[in-house]
Specification:
The protein is an alpha+beta fold. It has 11 helices and 7 strands.
Length: 300
């Protein structure tokens, strides 16, 4: 067995030497290697800290098993992995669809930054106006804004909506006679993706007294992801924002707008800067703590 493995490795080395001798071009192949290296490095930075890392490790483990099966001539294992890995491209697209979408969105932000900033401002304005209308009517609401980390694995998805974000639609979803008013609305990729979603509750014991299920759900999802959640309390008619497990209460319209712009606009700029200097990526991606805001007389 050892002799067989040794001869197989020797044959593989010889074939590689012949291949490089016949096809290697130092300039062209060096550029090719650098491009692939940068693409893989960028992909790893993109999926860092997400559940996609676990899936990627699983796929690499299967590739190692396939290589071992080829060397040891394990025919049954080879047949199973050949049929499974033959659809590897389709599997990767399905498993990493959320990360691929975020990657393409990031590329689009780099090509058309002003257009994206204008779209984000319009989206945030619709959310702010909807939150203020709901607070004025004392209607409870829970709006989750997805950022880099996908939410599908952590929430119980309700009804698929896939609609543009407008204040009219957001208000109508949370009105008491709406069948979807009891759950959370998830905003993903600039669209209302789902409504009536169930979020994981926070188990922290140090939260302020009087917080209901909505606030605990908002804190719970932000403890697991980088999402930003807006909570409207029907008991107190106040607006709160939760980011990174931190609760910011007693916001009015202008203050809510300022907090969201700080989180999304400044946070995006910090992540883009961190992408240029990977050593500072972890530090730049953090959300700065925001002190509790006091209500102001201004309104929309």
């Amino acid at each position: 067995m050892i002799e067989f493995l040794w001869s197989t490795l020797n044959q593989l080395v010889v074939e590689l030497q012949d291949f490089f001798a016949a096809n290697f071009d130092p300039v062209r192949d060096s550029m090719d290697i650098v491009v692939v290296f940068l693409a893989v490095y960028w992909l790893l930075i993109l999926i860092k800290g997400t559940r996609a890392v676990q899936i990627l490790v699983g796929l690499l483990f299967l590739a190692v098993i396939k290589l071992a099966a080829d060397l040891l001539q394990l025919m049954t294992v080879q047949w199973i992995l050949d049929n499974f890995l033959g659809y590897a491209v389709l599997i990767v697209i399905i498993l990493f669809q959320a990360d691929i979408r975020r990657a393409l969105a990031r590329v689009g932000r780099g090509v058309f930054p002003r257009m994206v900033e204008r779209q984000e401002s319009q989206l945030l304005e619709e959310i702010v106006r909807a939150a203020q209308i709901l607070a004025q009517r004392r209607v409870g609401a829970l709006m989750v804004l997805e950022r880099e980390t996908g939410l599908e694995d952590l929430i119980q998805v309700g009804t698929t909506v896939d609609a543009l974000v407008t204040k009219e639609l957001l208000v109508s979803v949370f009105l008491p006679y709406s069948p979807l008013h009891d759950g959370a609305v998830v905003i993903q990729g600039g669209h209302i993706a789902w409504a009536g979603c169930i979020l994981p509750l926070s188990l922290r014991a140090d939260l302020p007294d009087g917080l209901g299920t909505r606030h605990r759900a908002a804190i719970g999802i932000t403890e697991e992801t980088d999402a930003v959640v807006i909570v409207v309390s029907e008991e107190t008619a106040t607006i709160s924002v939760v980011a990174g497990g931190q609760l910011i209460q007693q916001l009015d319209g202008p203050e809510l707008r300022r907090v969201l712009q700080d989180v999304f606009v400044r946070g995006r700029d910090a992540r883009d800067a961190a992408a240029d200097t990977p050593g500072d990526a972890a530090e730049a991606g953090e959300i700065e703590p925001v002190t509790r805001a006091q209500p102001s007389p201004g309104s929309l």
